[in-house]
């Protein structure tokens, strides 16, 4: 038995005719009759008396009509109340720098589920610097951003840390090394993320401190393109350890850079001196609980 059968039954009761009920329900008379027969078989009784004058309810049918009307009324009221409750929820956007969702999807979605009784959380991905800009421009209240960050402008809660790395085709001499120093990048064609990503600044600064300007032969907007270009021998690429580990090890070698500052660090961030909304505070608390701090 399902609500559709109940609605079929009640429509016949209201119209006192299978023909008219079928027309109002936009189904065939045969389909409606089959639905009622199945209902009667389940209830083990006849609901209607069918004769040349039309259809009338049996004693059992009259009783069942009252119960069916109660069930449908409760269902309709529940749907209405839930719909009204959902319409009261706040829509909240959590900003995430690219890569954060890939590494911590389960923790993020546990937090959005935990706060779903209060708000509808959507996650929007940004390049690193644009995630910060969205917070400063008040487009979003909370963001999972990549360091380093200007603590004069942001309140920052450190969450996790991974290492940037290089992905090198096996045909490149650097693939012989597990770790290289900054000087070995001199004259290498480096496939890099665009300047909107923090690693661009970090590597440029490290190279400058070592006395040379890196050759960024291509600046990509997504890490998959970096990996693809390396796989096609167009240079060495900058990646992140957790994203590089799944590459084809027969073709690509993951090489570490011997620099302590070559880090992908994630922070939970909001604008300095900004009083968080109750929704933002609730989500912040949940994120700090679910994402394993390091």
Provide an overview of this structure:
The protein is an alpha/beta fold and 294 residues long. It folds into 2 domains: 3-86, Orthogonal Bundle (Arc Repressor Mutant, subunit A); 90-294, D-Maltodextrin-Binding Protein, domain 2 (3-Layer(aba) Sandwich). Helices cover 44% and strands 27% of the residues. The chain has helices at 3-15, 18-25, 29-43, 59-88, 100-114, 128-136, 198-209, 223-231, 241-244, 278-290; strands spanning 48-51, 54-57, 90-97, 119-126, 142-146, 154-169, 179-180, 189-193, 215-220, 236-240, 252-257, 263-271. The strands form 2 sheets. Strands 3, 4, 5, 6, 7, 8, 9, 10, 11 and 12 form a 10-stranded mixed beta sheet that branches. The longest helix has 30 residues, at 59-88. The two termini are 53 Å apart. 28% of the residues are buried.
Reported by name, the CATH topology of the largest domain is D-Maltodextrin-Binding Protein, domain 2
Our estimate of the beta-strand percent is 25-35%
- Which regions are unreliable across 5 or more consecutive residues at pLDDT < 50? none
User: Mind telling me the C-alpha Rg?
Assistant: 31 Å
The number of helices is 10
Q: Can you tell me the CATH class of the largest domain? A: Alpha Beta
CATH architecture of the largest domain: 3-Layer(aba) Sandwich
**Helicity, in percent?**
40-55%
**How far is the N terminus from the C terminus?**
53 Å
Mean pLDDT: 92
Structural class: alpha/beta
Number of strands: 12
Q: Based on CA inertia axes, which overall geometry fits?
A: elongated
Number of domains: 2
The H/E string reads HHHEEHEHEHEEEEHEHEHEEH
Biggest sheet record: 10 strands, mixed
What oligomeric state do these chains adopt? Answer: single chain
């Amino acid at each position: 038995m399902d609500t559709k059968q109940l609605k079929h039954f009640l429509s016949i009761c209201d119209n006192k005719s299978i023909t008219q009920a079928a027309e109002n329900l936009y189904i065939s008379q045969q389909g409606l009759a089959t639905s009622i027969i199945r209902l009667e078989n389940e209830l083990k009784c006849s609901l209607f008396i069918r004769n040349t004058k039309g259809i009338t309810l049996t004693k059992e049918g009259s009783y069942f009509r009252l119960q069916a009307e109660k069930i449908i009324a409760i269902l309709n009221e529940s749907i209405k109340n839930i719909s009204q409750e959902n319409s009261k929820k706040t829509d909240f956007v959590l900003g995430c720098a690219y890569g954060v969702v890939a590494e911590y999807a389960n923790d993020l979605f546990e937090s959005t589920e935990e706060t779903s009784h209060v708000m509808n959380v959507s996650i929007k991905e940004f390049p690193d610097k644009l995630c910060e800009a969205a917070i400063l421009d008040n487009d979003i209240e909370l963001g999972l951003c990549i360091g380093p960050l200007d603590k004069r402008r942001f309140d920052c809660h450190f969450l996790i840390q991974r290492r940037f790395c290089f992905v090198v085709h096996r045909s490149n001499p650097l693939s012989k090394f597990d770790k290289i120093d900054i000087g070995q990048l001199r004259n290498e064609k480096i496939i890099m993320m665009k300047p909107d990503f923090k690693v661009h600044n970090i590597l440029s600064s490290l190279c400058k401190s070592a006395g040379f300007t890196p050759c960024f032969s291509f600046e990509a907007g997504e890490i998959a393109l970096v990996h693809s270009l390396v796989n096609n021998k167009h240079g060495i690429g900058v990646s992140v350890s957790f994203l590089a580990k799944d590459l084809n090890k027969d073709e690509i070698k993951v090489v570490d850079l011997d620099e302590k500052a070559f880090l992908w660090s994630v922070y939970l961030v909001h604008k300095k001196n900004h009083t968080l909304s109750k929704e933002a505070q609730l989500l912040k608390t949940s994120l700090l609980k679910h994402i394993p701090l390091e």
